[in-house]
Amino acid sequence: MCEFTFNQLGTYNGWWSQGYRHGHGTYRVAGSLYEGEWKAGRQEGHGTMAYSNGALYVGEWHKGLRHGHGKYTDANGTVYDGDWLLNRKHGRGQLLYTNGSVFMGEFEADEMTGLGSLKLHSGLEYTGSFRHSKFEGTGNLRMVNGKIYQGDWREGLREGQGKLIYPDGSFYDGAWKQNKVS
User: Fold this and answer.
1) Are 26 and 13 in contact (CB under 8 A)?
2) Which has the minimum average pLDDT: 5-9, 104-108, 134-138?
3) Is there a contact between 17 and 2 (Cβ–Cβ < 8 Å)?
4) How many structural domains does the chain have?
5) 10, 34, 73, 170: least buried by Cβ within 10 Å?
6) Each residue's pLDDT tens digit, 63-73
7) Is residue 93 part of a domain?
8) Could you read off the pLDDT of 32-69 as tens digits, one per residue?
9) pLDDT value, residue 6
10) Is the model's pTM score more than 0.70?
């Protein structure tokens, strides 16, 4: 184990093997700090990165990228706890916003894509399919005013067949186009 300062590229304190950071070590650079496992000079395995902007990641790494399961808290306090693939949210996870809104479900390339549920701090709740972080496919929306929409969505709008149920039990069941009865 030794400490090495790279010319203006930070300081590493930890294990080395064949000229590479390898094993457990700590690396400080430009106000950021990584502590965890290394393999052949890159973060590999479990580690914690405190970024200079105030963000924090605790979890799995692969070839220097967030990869596997991990928890990321951004500088504003929004928290993602879930699966990562090559530095992007990918797989199952939970996203908790600072205003209390929460998404639980599937991610692909950093976007809500697949099945999930979104509960907004306003009280609005959606359960169903997402694509590119918008309602897409089939889903149910519970509105704050007591109305419930069950049906098809396209790019975040009611589009296709759907049923709108009013708080008094009456309903409309039919076609929708761009969020309006057609």
Assistant:
1) yes
2) 5-9
3) no
4) 2
5) 170
6) 999 999 999 99
7) no
8) 999 999 999 999 999 999 999 999 999 999 999 999 99
9) 67
10) yes
Q: Specify whether 46 is located in the same domain as 114.
A: no
One-letter amino acid identity for 7?
N
The answer to whether 120 and 102 are in contact (CB under 8 A) is: no
- Domain containing residue 109: 99-182
CATH number of the domain residue 109 falls in: 2.20.110.10
Q: State whether 129 and 165 are in the same domain.
A: yes
d(CA 47, CA 27): 11
Residue 31 · residue 52 · CB < 8 Å: yes
Report, in angstroms and rounded to the nearest whole number, the Rg of the chain calculated over CA atoms. 22
121 lies in some domain: yes
**DSSP per residue, 81-133:** EEEEETTEEEEEEEEE-TTS-EEEEEEETTEEEEEEEEE-TTS-EEEEEEETT
Residues 105, 181 within the same domain: yes
